[in-house]
UniProtKB/TrEMBL annotation, chain A:
Gene3D superfamilies: Acyl-CoA dehydrogenase/oxidase, N-terminal domain (1.10.540.10), Butyryl-CoA Dehydrogenase, subunit A, domain 2 (2.40.110.10), Butyryl-CoA Dehydrogenase, subunit A, domain 3 (1.20.140.10). Residues 469-596 form the Acetyl-CoA dehydrogenase-like C-terminal domain. It comes from Thalassotalea algicola. One of its GO terms (molecular function) is flavin adenine dinucleotide binding. The keyword Flavoprotein applies. Residues 162-233 form the Acyl-CoA oxidase/dehydrogenase middle domain. Keywords: FAD, Flavoprotein, Oxidoreductase. Residues 284-452 form the Acyl-CoA dehydrogenase/oxidase C-terminal domain. Its cofactor is FAD. Belongs to the acyl-CoA dehydrogenase family. This is Acyl-CoA dehydrogenase. It comes from the Bacteria.
From TrEMBL, chain B:
Heterodimer of an alpha and a beta subunit. GO terms for molecular function: electron transfer activity. The electron transfer flavoprotein serves as a specific electron acceptor for other dehydrogenases. It transfers the electrons to the main respiratory chain via ETF-ubiquinone oxidoreductase (ETF dehydrogenase). Belongs to the ETF beta-subunit/FixA family. Residues 23-211 form the Electron transfer flavoprotein alpha/beta-subunit N-terminal domain. Keywords: Electron transport, Transport. SMART domains: ETF. This is Electron transfer flavoprotein subunit beta. One of its GO terms (biological process) is carboxylic acid catabolic process. InterPro entries: ET-Flavoprotein_bsu_CS, ETF_a/b_N, ETF_b, ETF_beta_N, Rossmann-like_a/b/a_fold. The keyword Glycoprotein does not apply. Its cofactor is AMP. The keyword DNA-binding does not apply.
């Protein structure tokens, strides 16, 4: 029997015990749904993962896309798999009925996506980017743009990309130089170079719609002068027929450490006088539109990272259950049978770490999906606003924590397999390589930490900060009410004291000290906050688990809940205490890195 | 032409089956359940007959507790038109299932009944044959190909020596083998439609059949675990063990 991709019992736990997803069906938007439709969708995703993506996962990794100077070549098995995915209706599942969606709650779509991500990796990227592209256009495009581009994107006839990054502008998009000049017919001529554009060229679809960030000639410098354009690979006439190739050229492909199913392209716009582009929304608001989608895009990155962590955990768990090697230190008899490595304490440590990271991260990203839903569909305006506040605040953590600890989980998965983890007969080394992108794109870890500390924390008189702390406090109270959890609840309460102290100190220091020095350890602040958020999520799970264990339970159920409690304990004993160290660096304004002279390296 | 497809809710084939500690039965508490794979093949075949224009209506039926409505929903999402749930809390043996189905066949008058050849939990391989006997309809079991031809159905059967094709007069009973087709998965719009398709719930008790069990399960035991190997010190010891313990050489 092969390893499961995900523990289905954990999905049930997260959806129906932790998040009460069934109650979503009371909302008007979801009134046609029930738990059975949710489970059926997840099952369909799992079957597509099993039938179409798992069998080609290895090949996609080993045979990267190639470019012969004219055309991109992908393995031929990819298109049928993506077509099957498209036909299933999953890519537009969360969209409104009128746009061929099924108004599926995002939290359910996230779980469906987890199965697909584990099996298909970045092959799913083609579809996910297309959906993101369509969502962005639908939110900010004119009626004409929506009519012309969104429809074929939703039908999967066209693919979509996000073309932001340039050779000279990655983290700092403010410095991008791609330019747009208005033509007589109100379209624009786009000129410039973009790099790292995922899915930037291929022939999986009839057409590719690039959403390009560019500066209109004469627009202000910095972020205030950036506009967003639709730039298609092929021009499309008003009757919808595909016309001649636009002035967009593939300059080359990048060869990546992981995520090899998806092309990563360098695109030249306007080598022959200017690519035709159509303005989305108003001039100079492009970055704002992009950022509008950013919360969702960042939850998506965290979700991918969490899913791959789960995949590696399940794989290495299965392996450890079946690999006999060595004996326990207490056993001196060479005639005795070897034990399966899962018996070794150190293997249990690495599996527990993975469980704590992966299931903690999965719970966090599902919370992110739920908040992104609640801010639109919660019953009251107050609840919507509250969800928005929490999501906005947590986004840097939802993006970063799974991205940082997902690859760490995968690193442990490799170690559990020993030499077998280092070779490509097992997927764990691929998981690691795939997952390693996540701390880089959609804002690097450092950029997220600056966003958290310098923007999100002080913003609106610390509204978001206070809101999340109130959530922590509620869970601490619930933990304290259960004697077996009181010690952990207290530990979390102490962590909050440390967090408050650290935050107070830093906010004051921002007003009085050298700001470069104050922000020098921003990543430590993000780590600290992230660990506290994950500790909170684990305590929430533990509260449910200990309540469940009070009942007469079937052995499988007992084991499941015991596992939750043990993973929580692991996180509180092995991980949470690290915040004290991070806090120390922060509250002493440790200047080791700041004072390091660039010439001393 | 109406096709009736009985489906059974069973333990998902991916789940590692465990036996209850008291050896009374297989342990089904909180394990993932699914449509029996052979029944799924039966649904697929019926839906294909409908898509080909041969069948006009596909009706699925499941017998069991309320939970088997989940599997009914799956079958409806795969393309069945409507469903009957015969509700009972008892776990019925093959003969009782066949008797209930017989009543339903009388009521629905399908031209074709397609069943799985067996369920992966109890592995009895009886229900289809019993239903054929009770209804007096001809049967084609272990089907790997089903072709309706006018008032006949040609069923290619997987038999020990190879393939055998039988021609049955309709109405007839077919039981599916693994290679008959590869079932589809439900597309999302069909999952939504399934919820709105008609589902008729009847109580098994209302069928006027004596449902007391004809067979009693005495004991369920898991297959013996392979015991650990031993390291022998010498070739002589190995030969000795093979002779006297394993008794595989003399
Ligand atoms: C596989 C892959 C797919 C991608 N897909 C897309 C895509 O589809 N569309 C798209 O537009 N882009 C895409 N990107 C680009 C991605 O978003 C950028 O790589 C990312 O924004 C980082 O920019 P950069 O690579 O130029 O690194 P740089 O910005 O040069 O950063 C290098 C290092 O410097 C640090 N750094 C930079 N600025 C600061 C600062 N102000 N303060 C502190 N530290 C700083 C960063 O944290 C990082 O560690 C993709 C990249 C990859 C690798
Ligand atoms: C690239 C590569 C090159 C190599 N080159 C050579 C070579 O040239 N010659 C050669 O002979 N071998 C070579 N090896 C093999 C390498 O030495 C083994 O992979 C290594 O010894 C680990 O053994 P294993 O892979 O069987 O893992 P296992 O022994 O199965 O270990 C799996 C996991 O179980 C843990 N574990 C195992 N036993 C215990 C125990 N008693 N207590 C606690 N934990 C335990 C391990 O720490 C590990 O985490 C190579 C391997 C690789 C990947």
């Amino acid at each position: 029997m092969t390893a499961p991709m995900i523990n289905a019992r954990d999905i049930d736990f997260l959806l129906y015990e932790l998040f009460d997803s069934e109650s979503l069906c009371n909302r008007q938007r979801y009134q046609d749904h029930d738990r059975t439709t949710f489970n059926e969708v997840i099952n369909t995703a799992k079957q597509i993962a099993d039938k179409h993506f798992l069998p080609i996962r290895n090949k996609l990794d080993n045979q990267q896309p190639t470019f012969d100077g004219k055309k991109v070549h992908l393995i031929k098995e990819l298109k049928p798999a993506l077509d099957a995915l498209q036909e299933s209706g999953i890519p537009s599942a969360t969209a409104d009925y009128e746009f061929n969606g099924m108004q599926l709650p995002p939290i359910i779509a996230n779980v469906a996506g987890a199965y697909l991500t584990i099996a298909g990796g970045t092959a799913l990227g083609y579809s996910m980017l297309t959906t993101a592209n369509a969502n962005l256009l639908q939110a900010h495009g004119s009626k004409e743009l929506i009519e012309k581009w969104v429809k074929p994107l939703r039908e999967g006839r066209y693919a979509g990309t996000m073309a932001m990054t340039e050779p000279g502008a990655g983290s700092g998009l403010a410095d991008l130089t791609t330019t747009a000049i208005k033509s007589e017919d109100d379209s624009y001529k786009i000129t410039g170079n973009k790099i790292f554009i995922s899915g930037g060229d291929h022939d999986l679809n009839e057409n590719i719609v690039h959403l390009v960030l560019a500066r209109i000639k004469g627009a202000p410098k910095g972020t205030k002068g950036i506009s967003l354009f639709v730039v298609p690979k092929f021009l499309v006439s008003d009757d919808g027929s595909i016309g001649k190739q636009n002035d967009v050229a593939l300059a080359g492909l990048f060869h990546k450490m992981g995520g090899r199913a998806q092309t990563s392209t360098a695109l030249s716009f306007g080598e022959k006088g200017g690519a035709v582009g159509y303005l989305v929304g108003e001039e100079n608001k492009g970055l704002q539109y992009m950022f509008h989608m950013m919360n969702e895009a960042r939850v998506m990155v965290g979700s991918g990272a969490a899913a791959i962590a789960v995949g590696g955990f399940q794989y290495s768990l299965d392996y450890a259950n079946n690999r006999p090697q060595g004996r326990l230190p207490s056993c001196k008899d060479p005639h005795s049978p070897m034990v399966n490595i899962i018996e070794h304490a150190d293997i249990k440590r690495m599996l527990l770490a993975q469980k704590a990271y992966a299931e903690g991260a999965l719970a966090l990203v599902l919370l992110g999906s739920q908040l992104s839903d609640d801010e639109k569909t919660a019953e009251t305006d107050e609840a919507k606003a509250h969800a928005h506040t929490l999501l906005d605040f947590l986004t840097p953590i939802i993006k970063t924590w799974p991205s940082e600890y997902g690859p760490k989980a995968n690193d442990f998965a490799i170690q559990v397999l020993g030499g077998h983890g280092y070779i490509n007969e097992h997927p764990v080394e691929m998981f690691y390589r795939d997952n390693r992108l996540n701390p880089i794109h959609e804002g690097t870890t450092c950029i997220q930490s600056l966003d958290l500390l310098a923007r999100k924390v002080p913003m609106n008189n610390m509204l978001g900060y206070k809101a999340i702390l109130a959530e922590f406090t509620k869970t601490i109270a619930a933990g304290n009410a259960e004697p077996s959890l009181a010690a952990y609840a207290n530990q979390l309460a102490e962590a909050l004291t440390t967090l408050n102290k650290t935050t107070d100190f830093l906010l004051k220091a921002m007003g009085t000290e050298n700001i470069d020095l104050v922000l020098a350890n921003s990543v430590q602040y993000l780590s600290m906050f992230g660990h506290i958020v994950i500790s909170w999520i684990w305590l929430k799970q533990a509260v449910i688990a200990s309540a469940a264990l009070k009942e007469e339970l079937h052995i499988n159920e007992q084991q499941f809940y015991r596992g939750k409690l043990q993973a929580m304990q692991y996180f509180y004993r092995y991980e949470l205490p690290q915040i004290n160290h991070w806090s120390l660096l922060l509250t002493t304004l440790d200047d080791t890195t700041y004072q390091m002279n660039t010439d001393w390296f | 032409m109406k096709v009736l497809v009985p489906i059974k809710r069973v333990i998902d084939y991916n789940v590692k089956v465990r036996v209850k500690p008291d050896n009374s039965d297989v342990d089904l508490a909180n394990v993932k359940m699914a449509i029996n794979p052979f029944c799924e093949i039966a649904v697929e075949e019926a839906v294909r007959l409908k898509e080909a224009g041969t069948a006009t209506e596909v009706v699925v039926v499941s017998i069991g507790d309320k939970k088997c409505q989940e599997q009914i929903r799956t079958a409806l999402a795969l393309g069945a038109d409507r469903a009957v749930h015969i509700e009972t809390e008892e776990s019925l043996d093959s003969l009782n299932i066949a008797k209930l189905l017989q009543k339903l066949v009388e009521e629905e008058a399908p031209q074709l009944v397609i069943l799985g050849k067996q369920s992966i939990d109890s592995d009895n391989n009886q229900t289809g044959q019993m239903l054929a006997a009770l209804t007096g309809m001809p049967q084609g079991t272990f089907a790997s190909e089903v072709k309706v031809d006018g008032d006949k159905v040609n069923v290619t059967r997987e038999v020990d020596g190879g393939l055998q094709t039988v021609a049955l007069n309709l109405p007839a009973i077919v039981t599916t083998d693994l290679r008959l087709n590869e079932p589809r998965y439900a597309k999302l719009p069909d999952i939504m439609k399934a919820k709105r398709k008609p589902l008729d719930v009847k109580s098994a008790a209302d069928f006027g059949i004596d449902l007391s069990p004809r067979a009693n399960v005495l004991k369920v035991t898991p297959p013996a675990e392979r015991s650990a190997g031993v390291v022998v010190e010498s070739i002589d010891e190995l030969v000795e063990k093979l002779k006297n313990e394993a008794k595989v050489i003399s």
